[in-house]
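User:
I study polymers; will you set down one protein's sequence and backbone structure tokens?

Assistant:
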Amino acid sequence: MVGPSSSGPTPGDALPGGASGSADGAASASSASSASPTFAPSASTSSASASALPGPRSITPTTVKDLRDAVTAGTVLIRGTGTATTWGAPVRDPRTTVSLTGMDRILDHRPADMTVYVQGGIRLDVLQAELARHGQWLPYDPARSEATVGGLLATGDAGPRRLGYGSLRELVIGATMVFPDGAIAKSGGHVIKNVAGYDLAKLCHGSLGTLGVVAELVLRVHPLPQTSRTVMVRDVDTAAAQRLTWALTRSATEPTAIEWCEPEQVLAVRFDGTSAGAAARAAAARTLLSGSLAELDHEESESFWFSHAARVIAEPGDTVLRAATRPGVDPALVRALAAWAEQAGVKAMLTCSPATGGYTVRVTGGDAKAHAELVKNWRASVEAVGGFVMLRRRRPGVDAMVESWGRAPGAVEVMRRVKGNFDPENRFAPGRFAPWF
């Protein structure tokens, strides 16, 4: 099953690609109220021995300086709203949890320049609401709208509109990061054509909090579309889904999202823009499509995509995996998933982004052994065609039977060297990419 994500092999999808910021989401929408970090120990230290290690603690910084001071000692887990703490392998024994909920402000918004400067802990839905007041938005629609922008960048997550607008890293024009040694690094700036410095956003994209913390971002915003229309095609098998996707992507219709859902066998194609423009492009797309067609107006379209996003949100006891392959809908992978699910006695809902080769599967029912069996078997099928599979969430007990990451990619040695250069003591999210490093 799944939800919104159209992407090729990147960490949020399956194959890690960068170096980080927050390992999940972060933050409330309120303004920071204090200039010093809040300390809230979550476990008491032993009073029996003066040499005992201090217990785990939680720190909520409100400024970049506070953040730097919070991450320079011990093992560290960066946390935001907690929407992606289960992505990848479990972090081993973090002594300090740094919450970005205190760094949740909009620092500067320049509507005329189409840029906004924010702290990494601001929630995406809060930022979108503020931008909408000025007729603008961040063209980015992950299912986890309550996550923080820093966490979303660090997880490499994206939604169906990635096809039309790119991922979050394409919208970053400036970044401030804090690294394990306490260094504060900045790149880019407030001008869209500014290319000063290293591209820290691409470095951290998908690194799951293992390299550094996304403290601040300057983002490029877009005018809010007047409307959105969606063309639905029902009873679309894998071969038809691939054929129709190629016809659309090679046309001048410019869809902003194309998603295929199994077992419903529905292909959904989205168009954003002016009322006249979106309607004209949807009409042109209908001439390229065949089968049982329906066109949704703006309100119907918004409702459909909201429910589509909900498909990826796991309930307790579910397992969610993300696969990245070559673009297209691979009939063999879809058949293999159905066969392995039936053998394991579980239900597997699949969502595919055909134009980018991303698959998300939500597994329900059965016990931990059944979930682990499906993950193992379907991962082998995906790896056989050169793809990758990561666990985003899992039923309790699954971790003991199957690894969160499968076969290491060819670039794993580069990843290890990057990790070794930025975090030589392996203090940031240790174990997140186990067993790779």
